[in-house]
Amino acid sequence: MPVCIAKTQYSLSDNEKALGRPTGFTITVREVKISAGAGFIVALTGSIMTMPGLPKVPAANNIDVTEDGKILGLF
């Protein structure tokens, strides 16, 4: 499977203070996740956080409007 490395946007390393393309660094992989549906492995480095995924059923499926215009199913 292909590997996706989640790292800081500021550097090729996992250290956001080592800007650009530093040399002589060690990258710390703290967790590895399998994204089976997408078909790749994600290596999480340093203190990077990922965005949450979307649910299987969109919240819009629970929204409805009554005949008198009242909206139902909003958060």
Based on the model shown, name its key terms:
75 residues, mainly beta, three-stranded mixed sheet, two-stranded antiparallel sheet, 5 strands, elongated
What does this protein look like?
It contains no helices and 5 strands. The two termini are 38 Å apart. With 75 residues, it is an all-beta fold. Helix content is 0%, strand content 28%. The strands form 2 sheets. It has a 3-stranded mixed beta sheet with strand order 1-3-2, with no helix packed on it. A two-stranded antiparallel sheet has the order 4-5.
How would you summarize the topology of this molecule?
Elements: E1 3-6, E2 29-35, E3 40-45, E4 64-65, E5 71-72
Parallel strand pairs: 1-3
Antiparallel strand pairs: 2-3, 4-5
Oligomer: single chain
Number of helices: 0
Characterize the biggest β-sheet. Answer: 3 strands, mixed
What is the number of E strands? 5
Mean pLDDT comes to 88
Our estimate of the beta-strand percent is 25-35%
Structural class: mainly beta
Helix and strand pattern? EEEEE
Report Rg.
20 Å
What's the quick description here?
With 75 residues, this protein is mainly β. It has no helices and five strands.
